[in-house]
Structures are given as C-alpha cells and as structure tokens.
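Appendix B. Chain record.
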Amino acid sequence: MSEMKLVHRVYEGFVDGERFVFSVNAVREVSLREEIRNKERIMKIGRMIFETDDRNKARNYTEKVNGQVIEL
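Structure tokens predicted for this chain:
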C-alpha cells in the first residue's frame, strides 16, 4: 500500500494591506479559511504560488521571501 503524502500550499497573504507569503497544509487550510470567515483571524488569502508534498520546500520558500518561516 502506498503512503499518502500531505499536500502543502504556499499562498500570498495580506494583513492591513501588507503582503507576506505563508505555507499551510491541505488539512489545516480548511480550518484557516473558516477562522477567516468567522473573523477569528484577520487576514486575506491571495493567490496560490505553488503546491508540494515536501513541507520543507514550502517552509524554506516562505523564509526566503519573508526572512522568516510563516506556516499557518
């Protein structure tokens, strides 16, 4: 039986008009979007930059762009 890998997505995010890049796995993304809808998290999600099954690749990209890892 093959192992299922968790998908990680890298998105643009915006808080008060400031752009940042973050990663989120596909399972967590569902609750993140719900938090945004319910105004529990004040941010907007922009375009998806890429998708990967390699968590480190997603995290490293956010660090390269932001100067720090942002994983939600």
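Further analysis of this model is presented in Appendix C.
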